[in-house]
């Protein structure tokens, strides 16, 4: 009998608490470092490199995290990474140097990627197929709520002191408590399978570009968004509010936008978001005083147009995949996202240095314009699928490939594995199948056959 949403949340409360404290601590640390680097007089490019280093470590965690967990176990991995991440957070206040901070940020990204992997694999072990939808909604709410609250914690102490570093360290350490004391049996081995990037691009060029563009937006927002607000002359409290509303805007409208993409072709919803982002990025040049006085409102609109792009890209790619490829494709998309996110703070800091505070919105407009042109081209000339062939949109965090198994998409994987009848001809076809067909091949897979990979937009 399926558990009620309340009973499910109670059963998962310890693990969700770990996720909440992880996101709160990492969110606080990210904005704190961006503002502190600027106040210490670091050159803008150094600030960009420091913030970009996090994503290089994050990608490393995606690549090697599964092997570490499978080798030493979930609890040992979580304990080691949480302790390391907590210690590194404190060391930022001791060694105030761009090179040192860059190394620390890379190590933080590696630690957090592994920590998210353990949390999500533990959640996946505790839910059944009937509970995945409610659990995923709870996990998304807790994660985004933690990110938003972490921004508001900037108001608790001056950024020039060590207190906020201590608070971020404490939050990371607290995430260890429910995992270390849990009586739940450890999850099974974590899959480290990933799809090759070349194959991912061949399946869906638009999904690939969407994930890459989303990485640039997120890297720039989280990496130098606080610096952008500080350059406008805002006090710390207003900077925290601005970042809070960016996250809140994306959090509130991500699901309605996703539902809209289930009712019309997803590429059109993506194009609409990108067009909206172009205007959002250009408005500050037309009405700078209005935007400066209402920066939190503008930030919420920015979140609406940027944050759903990654989840839409994942859903779009999945529309052209068999369920067995969902998790490997998720791993590849996260590598694309993380690699692109590393460029966001660097390019964003350069735009801020060259164009002034409004250089960051200009960057968003330029990248969104390029993506919109590509998406429009693909919508006109790429292969399309019908609305009936589209899967259901599921909002997913940009954390680890395990989140795909955790989501209701895992139901489709489980259902296909459990109910597909054995057929020798199908087995032979799977053995000889090396890759999806190229888009320029004459023969195309039948859209009526769900076992045949579909080549995408």
TrEMBL record:
Which GO cellular component terms, listed alphabetically, does the Swiss-Prot or TrEMBL entry include?
plasma membrane
Membrane-spanning residues where? Answer: 45-66, 78-96, 102-123, 135-154, 160-182, 203-225, 237-256, 268-286, 298-317, 329-352, 358-377
Q: Which UniProt keywords apply?
A: Membrane, Transmembrane, Transmembrane helix
In this chain, composition skew of type Acidic residues spans 437-446
Recorded hits in Pfam families, A to Z, give: MFS_1
Listed SUPFAM superfamilies: MFS general substrate transporter
InterPro entries in UniProt: MFS, MFS_trans_sf, MFS_YcaD-like
Recorded GO molecular functions are: transmembrane transporter activity
Keyword Repressor part of the UniProt annotation: no
Q: Where is this region: Disordered?
A: 429-457
Its protein name is MFS transporter
Which organism is this entry from? Thalassospira marina
Q: What is the lineage of its organism?
A: Bacteria, Pseudomonadati, Pseudomonadota, Alphaproteobacteria, Rhodospirillales
């Amino acid at each position: 009998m399926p558990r009620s949403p309340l009973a499910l949340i109670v059963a998962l409360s310890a693990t969700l608490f770990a996720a909440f404290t992880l996101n709160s601590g990492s969110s606080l640390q990210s904005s704190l470092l961006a503002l502190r680097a600027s106040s210490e007089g670091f050159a803008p490019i150094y600030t960009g490199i420091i913030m970009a280093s996090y994503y290089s470590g994050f990608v490393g965690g995606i690549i090697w995290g599964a092997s570490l967990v499978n080798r030493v176990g979930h609890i040992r991995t979580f304990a080691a990474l949480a302790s390391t991440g907590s210690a590194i957070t404190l060391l930022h206040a001791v060694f105030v140097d761009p090179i040192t901070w860059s190394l620390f940020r890379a190590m933080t990204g590696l630690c957090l990627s592994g920590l998210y992997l353990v949390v999500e694999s533990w959640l996946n072990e505790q839910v059944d197929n009937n509970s995945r939808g409610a659990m995923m909604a709870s996990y998304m709410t807790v994660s985004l709520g933690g990110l938003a609250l972490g921004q508001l914690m900037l108001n608790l102490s001056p950024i020039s002191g060590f207190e906020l570093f201590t608070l971020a360290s404490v939050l990371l350490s607290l995430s260890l408590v429910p995992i270390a004391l849990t009586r739940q049996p450890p999850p099974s081995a974590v899959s480290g399978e990933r799809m090759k990037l070349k194959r991912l691009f061949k399946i869906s060029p638009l999904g690939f570009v969407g994930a890459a563009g989303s990485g640039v937006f997120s890297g720039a927002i989280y990496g130098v968004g606080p610096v952008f607000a500080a350059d406008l002359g805002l006090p710390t409290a207003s900077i925290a509010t601005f970042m809070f509303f960016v996250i809140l805007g994306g959090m509130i409208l991500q699901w309605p936008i996703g539902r809209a993409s289930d009712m019309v072709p997803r590429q059109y919803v993506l194009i609409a978001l990108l067009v909206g982002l172009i205007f959002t990025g250009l408005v500050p040049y037309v009405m700078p005083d209005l935007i400066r006085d209402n920066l939190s409102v503008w930030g919420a609109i920015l979140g609406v147009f940027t944050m759903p792009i990654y989840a839409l890209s994942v859903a779009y790619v999945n529309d052209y995949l068999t369920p067995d490829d969902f998790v490997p494709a998720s791993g590849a998309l996260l590598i694309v996202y993380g690699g692109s996110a590393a460029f966001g703070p660097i390019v964003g800091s350069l735009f801020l240095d060259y164009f002034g505070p409004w250089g960051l919105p200009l960057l968003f407009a330029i990248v969104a314009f390029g993506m919109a042109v590509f998406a429009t081209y693909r919508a006109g000339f790429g292969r399309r699928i019908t609305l009936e062939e589209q899967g259901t949109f599921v909002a997913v965090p940009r954390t680890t490939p395990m989140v795909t198994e955790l989501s209701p998409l895992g139901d489709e994987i489980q259902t296909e594995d459990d109910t597909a009848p054995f057929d020798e001809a199908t087995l032979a076809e799977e053995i000889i199948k090396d890759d999806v067909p190229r888009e320029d091949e004459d023969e195309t897979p039948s859209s009526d056959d769900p076992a045949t990979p579909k080549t995408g937009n």
